UniProtKB/TrEMBL annotation:
SUPFAM superfamilies in alphabetical order: Putative modulator of DNA gyrase, PmbA/TldD
Domain Metalloprotease TldD/E central residue range list: 121-223
Record-given protein name: TldD/PmbA family protein
Swiss-Prot/TrEMBL GO biological process terms: proteolysis
Family assignment from sequence similarity: Belongs to the peptidase U62 family.
Domain Metalloprotease TldD/E C-terminal stretches: 231-447
GO cellular component assignments: cytosol
UniProt GO molecular function: metallopeptidase activity
Organism (species): Sphingomonas alpina
Length: 448
């Protein structure tokens, strides 16, 4: 794999060549990755996989016409052909009034922030195998576990570089480590499954394999022999590991593409209250070791912590340069792109700030409700906000979490759900998107 400096220079070189070939403007992405994955099942090695990839993507502009091409063949002849093909395609493309690079005066200048995303380490396959076995062994050791889908451990390192014809060129590297286990409880048609996983940028930040495995086993056994639930309107409490889906629906609704196309249920909501007072939703790309931290966005703009929702009020859209031009606004530093195509938008370390009450208190006054630990299907309409998903979890009776329940749906409208949402104070940064325990009152539960 190239060094970060070499990756940056390779992206910058292809941009220079595109300009020489007749492009008015260009940008390029170089992305490389090495990954090692080990999986085990029932105490035996099941698979060892190693992958290495390196790709380069080039986007060129001829006036308001543009084209994007990408390749994994990085030979000199292939890159020459890539540049010629891209320029020829751009000349034949339709004009786009909003196309173009990011505003030059907004580009990141100087040194990129140091986020400590790369520990530089390499892990031997034998060490990953030992971790995967330890996770699965711990899960299978939990009383009531009857079978296993396996344990896994992984290690990866990636490099990402971006260069533009306006003089921006930068790159960064990141490592990633993961460990997981998935097991089953029960027999035959009554079998249930659950899992646990932990990921970290630095290997030193990864949870102990036994801890992960034990959590997987305990979660699975707790779900055994689920009952059905009667239909009705009731409070629903979301476990933090699945409650972050609420943030996903919000981000989809405030992305520039949804707003410019007028396909968002929050289209007219900027500057208005969309959550209850006290709810804050923010994005922190500078979080050290963050799973989605980055020093600059997909167009070369600097990134900074942003509050999308402050005290319940919607403060901003997520805009790349094209959608910002169309709306007459400024890009927000949330552009994201791969090696092919135009930029879109994406968040980094997205989170809902912790509330003021413990999750036990949040549940204590629920006479009859549901604690959700799994969501199934994608019955969400981003245009209207209508929401309906299959779910599984636990009954809440008289303020206490009771037995497991399954095979029911929860439904509502995201506008109402957001306004009726209360966060607990148990926020932890474990995933790319993080929320505390969430309670939403007045949802419709449809069971047996």
């Amino acid at each position: 794999m190239l060094t970060t400096d070499q990756a940056r220079d390779r992206a910058a070189d292809i941009v220079t060549r595109a300009k020489a070939a007749g492009a008015d403007a260009a940008d390029a992405v170089y992305a490389a990755d090495t990954a090692l994955d080990v999986s085990v099942r029932l105490g035996a090695l099941e698979d060892v996989g190693r992958s290495e990839s390196a790709e380069l993507g080039l986007r060129v502009f001829v006036g308001k016409r543009s084209a994007s091409v990408s390749t994994s063949d990085l030979s000199a002849d292939a890159l020459t052909a890539l540049v010629d093909r891209a320029v020829a395609m751009a000349r034949e493309a339709p004009e786009d009034a909003w196309a173009g690079l990011a505003p030059e005066d907004r580009l990141m200048r100087g040194n990129a922030p140091q986020l400590d995303l790369d520990d530089g380490g390499e892990v031997a396959p034998a060490d990953l195998k030992a971790a995967a076995l330890a996770a699965e062994d711990a899960a299978r050791a939990v009383s009531g576990v009857t079978n296993s889908e396996g344990g896994g451990a992984s290690a990866s390192r990636s490099i990402w570089a971006l260069a533009t014809s306006q003089g921006f060129a930068a790159s960064y590297a990141a490592t990633g480590y993961g460990i997981s286990a998935s097991v089953l409880a029960g027999e035959g048609g009554a079998m249930v499954r659950d899992y646990a996983h932990h990921g970290a940028r630095h290997r030193s930040g990864l949870e102990d394999a036994t801890t992960v495995g034990t959590r997987a086993g305990e979660r699975t056994v707790a779900r055994a022999n689920p009952a059905t639930v009667k239909s009705g309107a009731m409070p629903v409490v979301f476990d933090p590991r699945i409650g972050s889906s609420m943030l996903g629906h919000l981000i989809g609704a405030i992305s520039g593409q949804a707003i410019t196309r007028k396909t968002s249920f929050l289209l007219d909501s900027l500057g208005t209250r969309i959550f209850a007072e006290g709810v804050t939703i923010a994005d922190d790309p500078h979080r050290p070791h963050g799973l989605r931290s980055r020093p600059f966005d997909g167009e070369g703009l600097p990134v900074s912590p942003t509050e999308f929702v402050s005290n319940g009020m919607l403060e901003t859209w997520l805009l790349d340069s094209a959608s910002a031009r169309q709306l007459g606004l400024e890009p927000t530093g949330h552009a994201a792109r791969g090696v092919g195509g135009n930029p879109g938008v994406a968040t980094s370390n997205l989170f809902m700030a912790a509330g003021k009450i413990p999750p036990e208190t949040l549940i204590a006054d629920v006479a009859h409700g549901i604690y959700i630990t799994e969501l199934i299907g994608m019955g969400v309409n981003g245009v209207t906000g209508d929401y309906s998903r299959g779910a599984a979890g636990f009954l809440i009776e008289n303020g206490e979490i009771a037995g497991p329940v399954a095979e029911f749906t929860i439904a509502g409208n995201l506008k109402d759900m957001f306004l009726n949402l209360t966060p607990a104070n148990d926020l932890e940064f474990r995933y790319g998107s993080n929320v505390p325990t969430l309670r939403i009152d007045g949802m419709t539960v449809a069971g047996a």
